[in-house]
Design a protein that fits this description.
The protein is of the alpha/beta class. It has a single domain, classed as 4-Layer Sandwich (Metallo-beta-lactamase, Chain A), CATH 3.60.15. Helix content is 23%, strand content 27%. The chain contains six helices and 14 strands. A hairpin with an 8-residue loop joins strand 8 and strand 9. It is globular. Bound molecules: the ligand N[C@@H](CCC(=O)N[C@@H](CSS)C(=O)NCC(=O)O)C(=O)O. The site of the ligand N[C@@H](CCC(=O)N[C@@H](CSS)C(=O)NCC(=O)O)C(=O)O has 13 residues, from loops.
């Protein structure tokens, strides 16, 4: 009989209702090292409890960009887990412990022992500093607000550019293998994930030409996020602020 393989990788998709944000918890179970993507301050207690229950060592709180609709949980998580470092793109304009550039990797777990590796892919357009994170081993990409399920991030503030976003999605995301799963930072329709093929085939904005995409984005007529005035200044500190 084949020996049972021991799971090496933990993946949890978590949801915050107020801003419809997905937070992702990833861990290397051999070392118990973990990272969290796009934590929300309102759900830090829940996430911290899960991390503690599972006996994980939180190493990184990663933000895909400076969010405008909720306050990041990075700062509160750093207080609860002193070894945790905040991570964001070097193009974000936010303060953080670690800045990542296009092409760099974030790793948890030991080299040579199937660690969890995220490749950083700069996907500007929703904001200048949007970064997507690819796990090739798990055939997944965490797209932040660049690519949403059957949609994409708005481009009408925070240095948004529809032209840049179209290029980012076509060249940095739609060039991934078709079977890679797409995990966005938000969904407003109750969907959990998609795939590169599904979005290439069915995304009503991205199946259009560049000019049509720019027209669609110019006519979204979305109201500003309710929490934008407090979220932006807080998130520019990205978990670096003191006890305020
Ligand atoms: N109603 C929400 C904000 C909804 C919104 O604007 N979402 C953003 C991502 S958060 S800045 C977006 O890009 N949406 C794209 C779309 O097509 O919906 C609130 O008040 O927080």
């Amino acid at each position: 009989m084949e020996p049972k393989s021991i799971p090496q990788y933990l993946f949890r998709q978590l949801f915050e209702n107020e801003s419809s944000t997905y937070t992702y918890l990833l861990a290397d179970l051999a070392t118990k090292q973990a990272l969290i993507i796009d934590p929300v301050v309102d759900t830090v207690e829940r996430d911290a409890k899960l991390i503690q229950q599972l006996g994980l060592k939180l190493r990184y709180a990663v933000n895909t960009h400076v969010h405008a609709d909720h306050i990041t949980g990075s700062g509160e998580l750093k207080k609860k887990f002193p070894d945790c470092k905040s991570v964001i793109s070097n193009e974000s304009g936010a303060k953080a412990d670690i800045y990542v550039k296009d092409g760099e990797v974030i790793q948890i777990g030991e080299t040579g022992k199937t660690p969890v590796i995220l490749e950083c892919r700069a996907t500007p357009g929703h904001t200048n500093g949007c970064m997507s994170f690819v796990s090739h081993k798990n055939k997944s990409v965490f797209t932040g607000d660049a690519l949403l399920i059957r949609g994409c991030g708005r481009t009408d503030f925070q240095q948004g550019s529809s032209d840049k976003l179209y290029t980012s999605i076509q060249t940095k995301l739609f060039t991934l293998p078709d079977d890679y799963r797409v995990y966005p930072a938000h969904d407003y329709t109750g969907q959990l994930c998609s795939s590169i093929l599904e979005e290439k085939t069915h995304n009503p904005r991205l199946t259009k030409s560049r000019d049509e995409f720019i027209q669609i984005m110019a006519n979204l007529k979305l109201s500003h996020p309710k929490q934008i005035d407090k979220a932006l200044p807080a998130n520019l500190m990205c978990g670096i602020q003191g006890d305020d």
